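Hi support team,

I've been running sequence recovery on a batch of backbones for a student project. Most finish fine, but this one hangs at about 90% for roughly twenty minutes before it completes. I'm not sure whether the input is malformed or the queue is just slow. I've pasted the C-alpha cells below so you can try to reproduce it. Let me know if you need the job ID as well.

Thanks,
M.K.
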C-alpha cells in the first residue's frame, strides 16, 4: 500500500536507504559518496548498521572521502613521495629503500589506512626494537609513516592520524658516538706515517682529523676550495656515490644545510697535510689521470688511479690500516711478553667525531665548534661534551673557576 513504512522481520521501521535481505536477514545501507558513486555497507544487526550510518553521515558532512580509505599504507606512502618535490634525489632514494626494507612487506604496510590504529603502529615499532634496530633508524621510519598518514588526514581521507604520539614509544638501541683516545690517535698516525704501504694515506687521514669534515665533504673537496695564501679551506659541496637509475656512480651534491657551507681556518697540521698531498700527487703523477665527475676533476684526495673515494672505499682503507696495525702489535706484544694494545674499529665518521672531541677537550667555544663542524643545531655539538670523562670535566671546571670570581 502507498505510504506503508518498510520494516524488518522484527517490525522495526527502516529508514531511507536501509533494507533487510530476505535470503540471510543481513542489513544493508546504500548511499552516495562524495564522488557521486553509489556505495553499500552491510551489518548483521540494525543497531550495528545504524552505527555505521552515523559514521558515514559524519564523514560526508566533514568531507572525508572514505572511498580512498581502501588505499594501503604502502600506496599512501607512494602518494606522499609524489608530492615531496623538494627532496634531493639521494634523500628520495634513501626514503624509498628504507621503506622497502622495513615497511613494504609487513602487515602494517599492506593494511588499509582506514583500518590502521595506533596500537598497530606501536606494535610495529616494538618489532623493530626486538630486531635490535637503532632508535634513530626507527624514528626515520616513524617520520615516513607519520608523514604519509598526515597527508591522508590533510586530504580528508581519514579523520585523524593514528601515528600521532607513537614516536614517544620508540626506545631502540642508541648508537653511541665514539671517538679515538689521544693515545689511539697518535698510534694510528705514527703507524700510517711509518708504513711503506699505507703512508700514501697519511695526508688524507691527518687532514680528516685536523678539520672534522664529513666524509662526503672530505672526498668532494677541490683544490679550487683550498686557499693556502689565506690559510683557509672552503666547504662548498659534497661527493656521493649513488644509483639514481643509471647504476652506481659519483655525483656532486649541494651540502645538506646552510650550516654546512663554511670556511675553516687551516691548522698547522691541516696545512701540512695538504702540502704533503701535493707532493704525493706529483710523485705518483695523479694530476695526469684524474677522473672527472660532472665536469669536476680537481679533487684533493684521490686514489692511485686518480679516482675519488666512495665512503665504502674510504672505510675499507681504514679497516685495512687497523688490521695491519693490530697484526703487528700482536706479534710485537708476544715477543715482549705483554698484553697487546690494539686499535678499535675506526671509520670515517669516527675520524670526524674524534676531531670534534679533541676541540671540545681543548676548550674551544661551543659556537665556534658548531660552525667548524657545520652543525645546523648546537645540540648535536653539545652532545660531544657528554663524552668527556670526569677528569676532563673537572679540569675544565677548575680552569673556568680561575677566570670567574664568585663572592
Amino acid at each position: 500500500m502507498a505510504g506503508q513504512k518498510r520494516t524488518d522481520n522484527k517490525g522495526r521501521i527502516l529508514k531511507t536507504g536501509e533494507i533487510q535481505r530476505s535470503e540471510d536477514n543481513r542489513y544493508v545501507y546504500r548511499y552516495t559518496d562524495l564522488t557521486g558513486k553509489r556505495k553499500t555497507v552491510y551489518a548483521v544487526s540494525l543497531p550495528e548498521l545504524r552505527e555505521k550510518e552515523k559514521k558515514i553521515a559524519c564523514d560526508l558532512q566533514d568531507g572525508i572521502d572514505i572511498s580512498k580509505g581502501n588505499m594501503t599504507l604502502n600506496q599512501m606512502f607512494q602518494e606522499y613521495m609524489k608530492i615531496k618535490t623538494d627532496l634531493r634525489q639521494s634523500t628520495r632514494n634513501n626514503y624509498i629503500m628504507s621503506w622497502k626494507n622495513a615497511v613494504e612487506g609487513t602487515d602494517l604496510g599492506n593494511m588499509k589506512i582506514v583500518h590502521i590504529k595506533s596500537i598497530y603502529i606501536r606494535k610495529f615499532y616494538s618489532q623493530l626494537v626486538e630486531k635490535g634496530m637503532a632508535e634513530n633508524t626507527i624514528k626515520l621510519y616513524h617520520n615516513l609513516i607519520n608523514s604519509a598518514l598526515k597527508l591522508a588526514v590533510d586530504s580528508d581521507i581519514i579523520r585523524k592520524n593514528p601515528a600521532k604520539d607513537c614516536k614517544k614509544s620508540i626506545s631502540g638501541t642508541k648508537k653511541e658516538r665514539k671517538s679515538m683516545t689521544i693515545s689511539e690517535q697518535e698510534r694510528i698516525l705514527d703507524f700510517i706515517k711509518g708504513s711503506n704501504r699505507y703512508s700514501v694515506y697519511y695526508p688524507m687521514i691527518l687532514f680528516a682529523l685536523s678539520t672534522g669534515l664529513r666524509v662526503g665533504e672530505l672526498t668532494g673537496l677541490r683544490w679550487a676550495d683550498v686557499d693556502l695564501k689565506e690559510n683557509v679551506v672552503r666547504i662548498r659541496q659534497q661527493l656521493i656515490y649513488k644509483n639514481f637509475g643509471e647504476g652506481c656512480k659519483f655525483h656532486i651534491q649541494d651540502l645538506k644545510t646552510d650550516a654546512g657551507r663554511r670556511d675553516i681556518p687551516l691548522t698547522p697540521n691541516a696545512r701540512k697535510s695538504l702540502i704533503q698531498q701535493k707532493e704525493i700527487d706529483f710523485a705518483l703523477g695523479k694530476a695526469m689521470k684524474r677522473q672527472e665527475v660532472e665536469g669536476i676533476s680537481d679533487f684533493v684526495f684521490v686514489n692511485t688511479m686518480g679516482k675519488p673515494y666512495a665512503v665504502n672505499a674510504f672505510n675499507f682503507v681504514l679497516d685495512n690500516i687497523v688490521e695491519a696495525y693490530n697484526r703487528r702489535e700482536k706479534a710485537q706484544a708476544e715477543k715482549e711478553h705483554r698484553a697487546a694494545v690494539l686499535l678499535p674499529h675506526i671509520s670515517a665518521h669516527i675520524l670526524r667525531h674524534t676531531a670534534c672531541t679533541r676541540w671540545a677537550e681543548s676548550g674551544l667555544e661551543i659556537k665556534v665548534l658548531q660552525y667548524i663542524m657545520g652543525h645546523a643545531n648546537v645540540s648535536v655539538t653539545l652532545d660531544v661534551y657528554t663524552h668527556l670523562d670526569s677528569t676532563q670535566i673537572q679540569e675544565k671546571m677548575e680552569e673556568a673557576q680561575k677566570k670567574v670570581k664568585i663572592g
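--
Follow-up from support: It reproduced on our side and the slowdown came from queue contention, not your input. The longest strand covers residues 27-32. No action needed from you.
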